[in-house]
Specification:
The protein is α/β, with parallel strands linked by helices. It has one domain (4-72): Rossmann fold (3-Layer(aba) Sandwich), CATH 3.40.50. Helices cover 42% and strands 18% of the residues. It has helices spanning 12-24, 35-43, 62-72, and strands spanning 4-8, 28-32, 50-53.
């Protein structure tokens, strides 16, 4: 079963590069444009192995979102 990477990136171009590259390498890729999208993805309870987090998001500072992920998220142990 392939590992799942969640990328949280608000730049469509950069997100597209990440998604394309990781899919070519055989990973399952989930993509969020902001923290709202991230929380919607989490509602589906996917198993996430790695999170790539942009620090400058439009709706929330990446550091603030990281604190929430580490404290309250089911993927708090994700690198």
């Amino acid at each position: 079963m392939p590992k799942t990477i969640l990328t949280i990136e608000d730049d469509f171009f950069l997100q597209g590069l990440e998604v394309t590259r990781f899919k070519k390498e055989g990973f399952t890729v989930l993509a969020a444009l902001n923290s709202k999208d991230f929380f919607l993805i989490l509602e589906k309870k996917p198993k996430i192995d790695l999170i790539l987090l942009d620090l400058m998001l439009p709706d929330m500072n990446g550091f603030e979102l990281l604190k929430i992920i580490k404290k309250e998220s089911p993927c708090s142990g994700c690198p």
